[in-house]
């Protein structure tokens, strides 16, 4: 285990000591030193590993190094991590030089400079945070970089995207209610009040965000219409929800009319190529009722409203053509502890498998679904989406791993 530090000594004076790791006996297993840096993005409140996850990893022979106060915005103290068996340090370079670094937001150029050549990084890889300079740094340092959004499960789904979408979908209604109560003059209450016509909501898309938002809206008595390009997805959504739902195709001439009658419009379309198609033009927005609320939940992929641009949790809304826009890319960060626990569950499963199979690279070879999340490997870009966005040549990750073995 790592040497004691001042935080451990402080706990020791109080008669509290962190847990010791269990003996690591499996022949092909490998202990991994994992670094968890603090998120320095102002409105990123999540952390990649919870203290409970750290305790499990330490019990399985791994070492975890956490930057001081990294978990505070998620409700986890340094003492929580120390009691779980982690080491806590103020030395940022020590954290970033760990063989595996895990964080939520993509790294900055300065953070990549702190990494050792050939080390591993797991983080989000949203294009609105990445830059050509960051990509070039990852290539230069020959970093093995895994994008959480691109990693797949055994069924071909995207577990990180799905769980964050589930959280965002559940937040749509309370966020919309708060905005319309405070910013719409006169104030509007979403819901079905006796003697008052129900509010109308239009949902663009048919994934997890829409499913959660539609379920909450139906229970609140809100009239909901769902638009998507894919009839099969709309059928799946109706079957999953199990209650009557108005569904239409996006190309229908009914879309402009539905938008003009709605109090809330939620854009939750995701694209396989990383950039959401613009569905609602500025002209269509200009014809909406004054005070209508647009929530562009897919703003991290560019958004599906022509008038959208990225906002943040500090200043989440702006008004254009009399229409309120909410375009926050990291909505789950508002419930940072819940979101952190969800992310932690996903990552911990991967790390335990990686340890048992001999390390991250060996795990990628044996767990090919997670391999699809790799976007940079040993000086090459390996994900087609990243290559297309930043005009980089793309190498096949399987061939690169095979040549190494």
Automatic annotation (TrEMBL):
Q: What class of enzyme is it?
A: oxidoreductase
Query: Might you give the EC number(s) for this enzyme?
Result: 1.4.1.1
Alanine dehydrogenase/pyridine nucleotide transhydrogenase N-terminal domain boundaries: 35-168
Q: Which domain of life is it from?
A: Bacteria
What Pfam family is a match for this entry?
AlaDh_PNT_N
InterPro entries from the entry? Ala_DH (IPR008141), AlaDH/PNT_N (IPR007886), AlaDH/PNT_NAD(H)-bd (IPR007698), NAD(P)-bd_dom_sf (IPR036291)
Family per UniProt? Belongs to the AlaDH/PNT family.
Q: What's the protein here called? A: alanine dehydrogenase
Q: Which organism is it from?
A: Aquirufa ecclesiirivi
């Amino acid at each position: 285990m790592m040497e004691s530090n001042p935080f451990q000594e402080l706990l020791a004076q109080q008669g509290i000591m962190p847990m010791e790791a269990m003996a690591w006996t499996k022949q092909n297993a490998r202990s991994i030193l994992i670094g968890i840096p603090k998120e320095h993005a102002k409105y990123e409140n999540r952390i990649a590993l919870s203290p409970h996850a750290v305790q499990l990893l330490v019990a399985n022979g791994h070492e975890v190094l956490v930057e001081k106060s990294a978990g505070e915005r998620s409700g986890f103290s340094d003492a929580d991590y120390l009691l779980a068996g982690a080491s806590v340090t103020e030395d940022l370079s020590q954290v970033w030089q760990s063989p595996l670094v895990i964080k939520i937001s993509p790294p900055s150029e300065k953070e990549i400079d702190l990494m050792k050549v050939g080390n591993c990084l797991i983080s989000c890889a949203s294009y609105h945070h990445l830059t050509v300079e960051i990509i070039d740094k990852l290539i230069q340092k020959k970093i093995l970089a895994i994008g959480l959004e691109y990693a797949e499960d055994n069924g071909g789904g995207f577990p990180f995207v799905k769980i964050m979408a589930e959280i965002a979908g559940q937040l749509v209604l309370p966020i919309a209610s708060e905005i319309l109560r405070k910013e719409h003059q006169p104030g509007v209450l979403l819901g079905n009040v006796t003697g008052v016509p129900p509010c109308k909501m239009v949902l663009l898309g048919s994934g997890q965000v829409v499913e959660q938002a539609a379920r909450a809206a139906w229970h609140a008595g809100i009239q909901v219409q769902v638009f998507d390009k894919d009839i099969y997805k709309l059928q799946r959504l109706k079957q999953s929800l199990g209650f009557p739902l108005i569904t239409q195709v996006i190309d229908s001439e009914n879309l402009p009319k539905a938008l003009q009658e709605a109090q809330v419009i939620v854009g939750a379309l995701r694209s396989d190529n990383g950039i959401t198609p613009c569905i609602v033009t500025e002209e269509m927005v200009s014809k909406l009722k004054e005070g209508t609320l647009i929530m562009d939940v897919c703003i991290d992929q560019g958004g599906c409203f022509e008038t959208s641009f990225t906002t943040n949790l500090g200043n989440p809304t702006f008004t254009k053509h009399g229409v309120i826009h909410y375009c926050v890319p990291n909505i789950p960060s508002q419930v940072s502890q819940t979101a952190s626990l969800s992310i932690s569950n996903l990552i911990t499963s991967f790390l335990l498998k990686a340890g048992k199979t001999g390390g991250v690279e060996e795990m990628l070879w044996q767990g090919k679904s997670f391999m699809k999340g790799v976007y940079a490997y040993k000086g090459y870009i390996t994900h087609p989406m990243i290559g297309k966005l930043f005009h980089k040549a793309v190498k096949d990750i399987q061939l690169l791993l095979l040549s190494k073995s």
